[in-house]
Write a structure and sequence with these properties.
The chain has about 200 residues and is α+β, with helices and mostly antiparallel strands. The chain has seven helices and six strands. Strand 1 and strand 2 form a beta hairpin. Adenosine-5'-diphosphate binds next to strand 1, strand 2 and helix 2.
Amino acid sequence: MSETLAPSLEATAVQPEPAIAVTGLSKTYRTGFWLNKVVSPLKDFSLTVARGETFGLLGPNGAGKTTTIKCLLGIVEPTSGRGTLLGKPLGDRSIKQQVGYLPENPYFYDYLTAWEFLHFAGKVFRLSDSLLKERIPQLLELVGLSIDTARKKPMRTYSKGMLQRTGLAQALINDPELVFLDEPMSGLDPMGRYQ
Ligand SMILES: Nc1ncnc2c1ncn2[C@@H]1O[C@H](COP(=O)(O)OP(=O)(O)O)[C@@H](O)[C@H]1O
Ligand SMILES: [Mg+2]
């Protein structure tokens, strides 16, 4: 009896919502002094990404990759279309705690050390000091940034690749379920890219 039941139970098990599900997403920017020029980098874009999946967006400069990520994150409002992120409608704030984001051109507070910056980023997520004391060195090791440098040197003295590594650590500070990395390889040396 149990043998015949098992497969049917499996078949009816509730599937978790996809990490990303969007349909018909479009974005039109109005530019120019009179806002009379129109750019439409995103037209009727649909995508489903399952949880646990790694998905890459490839395309030339200006193709609309960053715009797509910003629409998914609720930073830019799509002109039309709808979708969900971790089962919640686009723009829903309740899932921000579970999402990490490395922007294409992150701005770093030059006079902070990487450690101070990561601590600040952790505090934005309301993580405790004791948790951050454990997590920051783990992340620094993961992204290949020396703990000594991260503790002592301000970020204005970092190379592009070191800043990119700091940005990657920042995107993971909240141990997110879903991570968006915009041009993650930018500035990294071949070894860094491989890692
Ligand atoms: N805030 C904005 N206002 C007007 N046009 C924009 C804006 N952001 C992006 N664009 C335009 O949208 C197009 C797509 O840009 P983007 O999404 O940054 O492309 P990608 O990341 O693939 O290089 C480009 O033509 C860009 O100039
Ligand atoms: Mg881009």
